[in-house]
Amino acid sequence: MSEQHEGTTLTTAERTLVETTGIEVIDESERTAKPSDLFWPWFAANVSVFGMSYAAFVYGFGISFPQAIVVTVLGVVLSFLLCGIIAIAGKRGSAPTMILSRAAFGVTGQKVPGVVSWLVSIGWETFLAIMAVLATATVFRELGWASGTATKVIATLVVTALIVLASVAGYHTIMRLQSVLTWVTGVITVVYIAMTFHLVDLSTVTTREGGSLESVIGALVMVMTGFGLGWINIAADWSRYQRRDASGGSIVFWNTLGGALPVVLLVGYGLLLVGSRPDLEDGIAADPIGTLATILPNWFLVPFLLAAVLALVSGAVLGIYSSGLTLLSLGVKIPRPAAAGIDGVILTIGTIWVVFFAQDFLGPFQSFLITLGVPLAAWAGILIADIALRRRDYDDRALFDPRGRYGAWDWTAVGTMVVASVIGWGLVINLFAEDAAWNNWQGYLLGPLGGKDGTWAYANIGVLVALVLGFVVTLLARRGTVRRQEEGAYDVAPAELGDRR
Description:
By secondary structure, the protein is mainly alpha-helical. It has a domain at 34-362: Hydantoin permease, CATH 1.10.4160.10. The protein has 22 helices and no strands. The two termini are 27 Å apart. The model is unreliable at 1-21 and 490-501 (pLDDT under 50).
């Protein structure tokens, strides 16, 4: 249990002066959420039939069904567990993730991981919007309705409008919507499983040959990056309304359960379904959700589309809400609705480009995901270690003052992230060289492991290496710094502080 550090809470007047709308520290009277409340947004954002399509990507590493099950359970649970740990910071500081990260990187230095976080969020929310538009077009085609350009244009406008409007509504509205969406999408997803279960052929599934250790690790990294690590940079955004006396263990539990439970079940079923129908794999690569709809009777296509789109919109809402907060944390002086509007424009442009002009988006997206996954993993390791080292709540005022106890730059944290990223990039390769040739510079440290064509190249161990390096180095090198911060000490002599204190 963390302690409240005396004298570090802002007054109402000070909040107005030092914080921008959207990233303010939550007032004590508004901190009424319970740990169990965290279940709903995480479950709703992840109970998507898109999770089933991930089975094709897992099998793409050439592993067997038992190996795929182990990879799925371990990768999903572990990655959301890391999200849960970072969510503890939200309870301790009642501010967005990228504001709380200033305690580790410095108020100004936090902009380094902040840019990475913003790009990841923008990428994910655009990806989810693209999935919703493509799924709509495919379902309309299966129904014999218009599925051409006009349908895609309307779907793009409707989907992007829903995402932006919901994110502008704010935390409390989103939390209420997510609890409803959980039931709607959950029920329809269960019906989908019931209607397609007869297609499962265990004899076909179990005949898949096993893969090497390198292949298993590669699939594990992809699962971790595609699920929990894809959300980790916004984990504290949804726990900042937690009561100060809420149990950290309960926060971790409900966060992990809400995110991991639907994913494990859906990917697990997808492994059975796709393993029984290898013909689905090629279609999933181009249109994951639309391909899953092709095996349904026509009368169920509209409910299926509704559930799929709502689930994707649900996930994108979390992303765009948090990307707006991240944009504000970078120093952009605009209201939160305007930040959501900027991200909404970017999302719309990205969706239009992929839906109407790009020949293939999955390859470039996966390449993008692994590339940004390396520095994001390094940042996560650093912040998790920083959270583990702290015993007191954050100093609200210092999170917004580069002259405060957290300083402007923490060069140890920034340097650790840079070095861990450089090492991590050297241990991953661009798996989609033809689709994303701009990313072929990676893998420069793979020589001793067989080079870019060796078996370890496809394991993408650089993501795990960056995560572990960030954690271990921070745990060892910043212990004294964290202790001085919590004691209110500064790295400069008192005479140099003047009236800063």
